[in-house]
């Protein structure tokens, strides 16, 4: 009997799976560290995946 495997996660179309990025603000702080902020994808809230959409039957004709 075949084993059921879960479907692969859907990659977010807005960020292509790269959900969080570090953006430099330019310059360095007094210790010499580069100042950065973390930005998350607004479409997937930083997860990199989306849920599968379920269309009612006959809606995609």
Question: How would you characterize the overall build of this protein?
Answer:
With 61 residues, the chain is mainly β. It is 0% helix and 33% strand. It has no helices and four strands. The protein has a two-stranded antiparallel sheet with strand order 1-4. A hairpin with a 5-residue loop joins strand 2 (20-28) and strand 3. It is elongated.
The biggest beta sheet is recorded as: 2 strands, antiparallel
Based on helices, strands and strand pairing, what is the structural class?
mainly beta
Output the radius of gyration.
19 Å
Strand arrangement across the biggest beta sheet: 1-4
Give the low-confidence spans: none
**Per the principal axes of the C-alpha atoms, what is the gross shape?**
elongated
CA(first)-CA(last) distance: 35 Å
Relative helix content: under 10%
**Overall strand count:** 4
Give the helices and strands as they follow along the chain. EEEE
Mean pLDDT: 82
Number of helices: 0
Percent strand? 25-35%
Helices and strands, with pairings:
Blueprint: E1 10-11, E2 20-28, E3 34-40, E4 49-50
Antiparallel strand pairs: 1-4, 2-3
């Amino acid at each position: 009997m075949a084993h059921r495997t879960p479907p692969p996660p859907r990659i977010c179309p807005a960020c292509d799976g790269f959900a969080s990025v570090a953006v430099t603000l330019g310059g360095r702080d007094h210790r010499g560290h580069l100042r950065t902020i973390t930005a998350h994808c607004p479409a997937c809230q930083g997860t990199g995946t989306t849920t599968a959409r379920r269309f009612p039957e006959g809606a995609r004709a």
